[in-house]
Amino acid sequence: MNAIQKTFSIFGVLLFLLQQESCAEKKPEIVHKAVGSSLHLVTDHPRENLTQIEWKFYLKTIAEYDLSKFTLFDSFYGRLHTNESDISVTVKKLHFNDSGKFSIVQQGDGFQFETKEVQLHVHDPITDVKIHSNVNWLQSKNMCTFHLHCVVSAPVNAAFNWNGYQVGNGSHLSFNLTAEARATLNCTASNSISVKYTTTTVMCKKETGFNVKSGIPQDLLLIAVGAGIAGIAMIIGIIGACYKWKNPKGGSDGGITVYEDVKPDSVMKKRSESMNNGMSIYETVDDMIVTPKRPPDSSYKLQTLYDKINFERHPAVTPTTSSPYQVVL
């Protein structure tokens, strides 16, 4: 009885392990390639064990092999190439859009092998690396503060490492040097398909071509700037008050208008006293002018602006005049 129980227990364990292995999903192979390179898709089994092979990009079939014959479908625009020796397909001149999942479905005589999957990532290669530097001279401490920035030629995802005088990670690096000291640093930029590096040497020189810092705390500097602005505003206010005191405004009721200024020597106004602003341009320009001797006709009035232009009017059209209107001057 115990032997039978042991047999069933071992059988159950083996069955469980087989189920776990069959249910486990195989992870695809991760492949990184540079733009313009090639991807080689080859089978996992010997040629004599295979009867049919199918290459796919996601769910779309791109090539087939059946009975020693390749068939290429209208994909990748003529960039697919076949190889009879190892029964493989090659995708040439890779683009960014070629990134994705490729699969190889393999069949034998009456059975199917496990499907091979390849996850492709296409990247731009790093072609050049440069180091940009910014230096501040800290006069109070007699030293320089260096800020270095490592950049690559193209906008690619890259990892940066520093070596030499300072060691660090990331594209930025900051450090201090005393006056006349030198330092050599190396920046290495890398991604999945390429590695590039560059080297630079920096030297701390006193105030030569650098940004100069006095070492004054920022809060004190802000207070000094605020006090300076307040002082300027106070000086402007004092100057304005002095100017107003020296040039007070007149307080007369009517004042001299632009119309009265026509004859500034006038000594009296004949405008009604109810008018505050005196006479207008239509009133007598000079109320005190000496008019000619009045004719017997009592309807004769003082000369107005229009009369003053020409005191002697032509009563009628004569051979010497060309118009019934008055001759101006």
UniProtKB/TrEMBL annotation:
<keyword id="KW-0812">Transmembrane</keyword>
<dbReference type="InterPro" id="IPR015631">
    <property type="entry name" value="CD2/SLAM_rcpt"/>
</dbReference>
<dbReference type="GO" id="GO:0005911">
    <property type="term" value="C:cell-cell junction"/>
</dbReference>
<feature type="signal peptide">
    <location>
        <begin position="1"/>
        <end position="24"/>
    </location>
</feature>
<keyword id="KW-1133">Transmembrane helix</keyword>
<keyword id="KW-0732">Signal</keyword>
<keyword id="KW-0325">Glycoprotein</keyword>
<dbReference type="InterPro" id="IPR013783">
    <property type="entry name" value="Ig-like_fold"/>
</dbReference>
<dbReference type="GO" id="GO:0016020">
    <property type="term" value="C:membrane"/>
</dbReference>
<protein>
    <recommendedName>
        <fullName>Ig-like domain-containing protein</fullName>
    </recommendedName>
</protein>
<keyword id="KW-0472">Membrane</keyword>
<dbReference type="InterPro" id="IPR036179">
    <property type="entry name" value="Ig-like_dom_sf"/>
</dbReference>
<feature type="transmembrane region" description="Helical">
    <location>
        <begin position="220"/>
        <end position="243"/>
    </location>
</feature>
